[in-house]
Amino acid sequence: MMNITKTKRNFIGLLTLFSLLCGGVGAVVLHKALPGHYFSGYPFIPVFFYLFGLFGIYMFDACRRHAPQKMLLMYMAMKVLKMIFSLFLLMIYCWVVREEARAFLLTFIAFYLLYLIYETWFFFSFEMNRKRKSKNENRNETIA
């Protein structure tokens, strides 16, 4: 049986919901509000960010278990890695599918920002909860 922490389970659940919601809303916007702007590569964008989010949470979980003092470094490394992979994907897509390049770039940037906000919120909340629990544990030890 696979061992999954509560934080990892919460992140994966929320990431799945967020990806489905953003992917669906984005498709509706491109089909209805901006007719003619939907492009064939659109589904790859939410899938890219979803898979990168899964990779990220597994990396964070491994870091939390084996080197918790390096969590901030891991967070920053994941952001840099995501940016490098994103730029690489953007360059390849725009080179291969030139006629859809502008729509792909604008949509990709919108998703990049949305996922950046979501991930920052999630990990900020995680860190605040961790600090609050640590403070409560220290207070309980002092009382006992």
TrEMBL record:
Keywords of this entry: Membrane, Transmembrane, Transmembrane helix
Record-annotated membrane-spanning stretches: 43-60, 80-98, 104-126
This protein's name: ATP synthase protein I2
The species this protein was found in: Bacteroides reticulotermitis JCM 10512
